[in-house]
């Protein structure tokens, strides 16, 4: 490993490993932090008193896995006339069957 090019290759591999692993670890840390906030003592106490009702969007991992469903939960979207799939209000075509929406 006395060859300078070997050090360059090792450095590049180390950088590639860091660039690949670091964002994943940061994302997992964010998700775990959000889960801890969700189970905070204040939130649990408000739920016990009945002041705060649980919602389907309380599960952080489920919301992340079904991100589009979270956006559609407010009911501001429209249904596709072809396949019946819910779509966002500003969509030009269906996300499921790709049918074009009319501008009416």
Gyration radius over CA:
23 Å
| Structural category | mainly alpha
Number of helices: 4
Oligomeric nature of the chains: single chain
What does the secondary structure layout of this molecule look like, with pairings?
Elements: H1 4-38, H2 41-49, H3 60-65, H4 67-72, E1 78-79, E2 86-87
Antiparallel strand pairs: 1-2
Q: Describe it for me?
A:
It is a single chain. The protein has four helices and two strands. The protein is mainly α and 104 residues long. The chain folds into two domains: 4-55; 66-104, no CATH class. Strand 1 and strand 2 form a beta hairpin. The longest helix is centred in the N-terminal third of the chain and has 35 residues, at 4-38. The model has no long low-confidence stretch (mean pLDDT 76).
Features:
single chain; 104 residues; mainly alpha; two-stranded antiparallel ribbon; 4 helices; 2 strands; 4% strand
Offer a concise description of the structure.
The protein has helices spanning 4-38, 41-49, 60-65, 67-72, and strands spanning 78-79, 86-87.
